[in-house]
Specification:
Layout lengths: L3 H7 L2 E5 L4 H5 L2 H8 L3 E2 L3 H9 L5 H6 L6 H26 L6 E5 L8 H15 L4 E6 L4 H10 L4 E6 L2 H20 L9 E6 L1 H16 L11 H17 L15 E5 L12 H4 L6 E5 L1 H10 L10 H13 L4 H36 L1
Parallel strand pairs: 1-8, 2-3, 3-4, 4-5, 5-6, 6-7, 7-8
Helix pairs in contact: 4-15, 6-15, 7-8, 8-9, 9-11, 10-11, 10-15, 11-14
Length: 368
């Protein structure tokens, strides 16, 4: 009998785990998750920062590092083996699904978010260093990131486009994917082995919108029915845009043989304890999508999730939510602009903290 994660897969949605650490690999936890139906792994500087600094899993590697390595080189010496090992664990999924799933994502240095050339060079280097076909390089959907995405795809490098909040940014990302695929094909590349996902962030939208609604309510405005609605409405509109681009008669019809760029729902843990802990899973189930879940949300969905397609339709309601928010002085474009700026800073700050903690831990181990 299939579990709820496996039922999602039958409905056309892949579930990836939004967490990676040495302990997860060494303990067999990653293998257990793959056995439950998890078909990919994503990570980011915040996740690695917590993994490296929360225990002693990396002490042996840190002790073995050469003294003359920089903090950045030390970071890669810790992280890249995890990426390779996870990719190897997922290689059977990659082969079984004919390169649809089985990917591990690795982020470029977040400080390159506004540097197109630097992003491309860093992504090329990481792609070569890891040397696994089921790697995805994570590139943010900033104005500088979008041309980097097209360039990398044109070279046959798989891309997980991250930090997408706005519908307009999602449109630009899809256009970059189509152009990158066409350029790769023109170079003689096998587009059937080229993959990309568009990581559309969810829960943070509600967190910011709900805060603004709360402030308005305190001032006497009527906000009934709007808290907790913006994130899924935004994602529904993004899914509709995906269907227009990649569905029958869409602009991607000229790229026969290539994969579609699936929407990936990111930031799907529930931030507001008043909301169900699977709200951003139950509400975002649809064909040709990915949902990336932290371990606690995976366990919650396995226990009491509701695997049923819910992304079909609902566009009028979604547009109504956006119209109502705009009428209250909360245009979604302002929200998503702020979230992109904050997201880039959050990942950059986490990356800096990670490097500082690695340096501190190396000093501590050297004195021991």
């Amino acid at each position: 009998m299939s579990n709820r994660i496996q039922q999602l897969y039958k409905l056309g949605q892949s579930v990836w785990c939004d967490h990676l650490s040495r302990g997860m690999i060494a303990s067999g936890e990653l293998d257990r998750l793959i056995g439950l139906g998890i078909v990919g792994i994503t990570s980011n500087p915040t996740i690695f920062m917590k993994a490296v600094t929360s225990g002693r899993d990396y002490d042996d590697r840190l002790t073995a590092l050469a003294d003359d390595l920089s903090d950045m080189q030390a970071y890669e010496a810790l992280v890249l083996p995890d990426i390779r090992d996870a990719a190897d664990r997922l290689r059977a999924v990659y082969d079984r699904t004919d390169a649809v799933d089985g990917y591990v994502s690795l982020e470029v240095n977040p400080h390159l978010a506004h540097d197109t050339r630097g992003t491309v060079e860093e992504a090329r280097r990481l792609w070569s260093e890891v040397d696994r076909p089921n790697l995805m390089i994570k590139v943010p959907a900033t104005p500088a990131g979008v041309p980097a995405i097209e360039a990398l795809l044109s070279e046959g490098i798989n891309v997980n486009v991250t930090l997408i909040f706005a519908l307009a940014a999602h449109e630009r990302v899809m256009q970059a994917y189509v152009a990158g695929v066409d350029r790769f094909r023109s170079r003689g590349g096998d587009v059937r082995r080229l993959a990309s996902v568009a990581s559309f962030f969810v829960s943070r939208v509600d967190s910011l919108v709900d805060k603004r609604l709360e402030d308005l309510a305190k001032a006497g405005a009527s906000t009934g029915g709007l808290p907790g609605k913006a994130a899924i409405a935004n994602a529904r509109l993004a899914y509709a845009a995906f269907e227009r681009t990649f569905g029958s008669g869409g602009v991607f019809s000229a790229s026969a043989g290539a994969r579609v760029q699936r929407p990936l729902w990111a930031s799907t843990s529930t931030k507001n304890p008043q909301y169900p802990d699977t709200i951003y899973v139950d509400g975002l189930i649809g064909p040709q999508t990915v949902n990336t879940l932290p371990p606690a949300t995976i366990e919650a969905f396995l226990d009491h999730g509701r695997p049923e397609v819910r992304l079909a339709g609902g566009l009028e309601d979604a547009r109504g939510v956006m119209s109502a928010l705009s009428g209250l002085g909360i245009p979604i474009e302002h929200v998503t602009d702020q979230l992109l700026t904050e997201g880039v800073k959050l990942f950059s700050d986490s990356f800096d903290e990670l490097l500082r903690n690695i340096a501190q831990r190396r000093r501590s181990l050297a004195r021991a």
